[in-house]
Design brief:
Elements: E1 7-9, E2 12-15, E3 18-20, H1 29-37, E4 43-44, E5 48-49, H2 50-54, H3 58-63, E6 73-78, H4 82-95, E7 99-104, H5 109-112, H6 124-138, E8 144-149, H7 156-172, E9 176-180, H8 194-204, E10 208-211, H9 218-228, E11 232-235, H10 244-253, E12 259-260, H11 263-281, H12 285-297, H13 303-312, H14 316-328, E13 337-338
Parallel strand pairs: 3-11, 4-6, 5-6, 6-7, 7-8, 8-9, 9-10, 10-11
Antiparallel strand pairs: 1-2, 12-13
């Protein structure tokens, strides 16, 4: 059995080796802070285009606002041109991001069509030129990491390209590489190949490899760490509406019994998310919060009616009343019980991870 050690990324000490992934449309500041309050020691901002980081305006200001309580935090970038990618990476570091993460994994069609994300796994020279540019721009002021899939497709040429980029990036000085063991073409169809992660970690030796894919419960997280030997994992779909997973992982790693949160605990986490969304988005908070609220409903013991009630809420008063009815106004509001693998929720994929 592989030993499980605290995670560090370059000189950034993370600690508990389960972190919140960069999730398009989800991992904004409110989600990251709720996750931290429930045990996540490191989180990544949702992926952003390099050109948006460089364009003055409200969105740029929002991206580059890194409050004191949001550390350590990684900024994940996507783009195609080394010059703009490098300039954006430098801006992230100047704004206070602790790690710069390069996305070579996104499988979304509109991203691939613009030669970004997972598309670059077909172009090792172009991918490594981006790595060179970012490392040169950052100048060691923050660790640089990479997010990859196991290849563009299942061809031998695709696997060769994977190893060229993987080994070339480490040779250039990246601090860690996250590997999602599905191909880009595969998107999210079929199981991820954890045996490929084990192969990658064996070949990497002491270099830092972070695993991803099919982590829907604390039990999955610990099993991936033990079975593959990776140094850490990024939790994606499994932490949306479920910040409790990080504390549950800590419990398992410390030999304690993980608990499924009580209805009141779920409702309290959602209300905290509401509070943070109000602070972050102002009058627009409800539209940003709605997709998160629906995900919290998945962890209700009667999830379909709970989700429908969340969807039907049209304003703040209705949403808060739904939360009260679902999680607080119950005879068992304070009841919790030991977590089991059967409690895992497998959400539909609706964003890039």
């Amino acid at each position: 059995m592989q030993p499980i050690r605290p995670l560090s990324i370059g000189d950034v000490r993370v600690g508990m080796p389960a972190v919140q992934a960069a999730l398009s449309g989800y991992s904004d500041l409110p989600m990251r802070l709720v996750a931290r309050e429930h045990g996540a020691s490191y989180a990544l901002h949702e992926v952003v285009l390099d050109e948006i980081v460089l364009k003055k305006g409200k969105l740029q200001s929002q991206i580059l606002d890194v409050p004191e309580q949001d550390h350590p935090v990684g900024g994940q970038l996507m783009g195609t041109m080394p010059e703009t990618f490098a300039a954006a990476a430098k801006k992230l570091v100047q704004a206070g991001f602790d790690v710069v993460d390069i996305n070579f994994g996104c499988p979304v069609n509109k991203v691939l069509g613009r030669c970004r994300g997972g598309y670059l796994l077909q172009q090792p020279d172009d991918a490594l030129a981006l790595v060179d540019a970012v490392l040169e721009a950052v100048q060691g002021d923050a660790p640089v990491t990479l997010k990859m899939r196991r290849g563009y497709d299942d061809s031998e040429a695709s696997e060769r390209n994977f190893w060229t980029i993987f080994e070339g990036a480490f040779a250039r000085g990246v601090a860690a590489i996250t590997v999602h063991p599905r191909t880009v073409v595969q998107k999210y169809v079929g199981p991820s190949r954890w045996e490929f992660l084990a192969k990658v970690k064996r070949r990497a030796g002491t270099l830092k490899v972070i695993g991803s894919g099919d982590l829907f419960s604390a039990f999955d997280v610990v099993r991936m760490l033990r079975e593959t030997g990776v140094d850490g994992v990024t939790v994606a779909r499994g932490c949306i509406g479920n910040p409790f997973v990080f504390g549950q992982v800590s419990a398992l790693l410390e030999g304690r019994e993980p608990m499924r949160p009580s209805p009141r605990a779920i409702g309290s986490a959602l209300l905290r998310h509401v509070e943070l969304a109000r602070e972050h988005y102002g009058a627009r908070w409800l539209s940003s919060l709605r997709t998160h609220a629906i995900k919290y409903a998945q962890y209700h013991d009667d999830p379909v009616p709970a989700r429908n009630a969340m969807v039907a809420a049209r304003d703040e008063r209705q949403l808060l009343q739904v939360v009260e009815n679902l999680f607080f106004a119950r005879a068992d509001a304070d009841a919790s019980r030991p977590l089991s693998p059967a409690d895992a929720v497998v959400p539909a994929m609706s964003m890039s991870e």
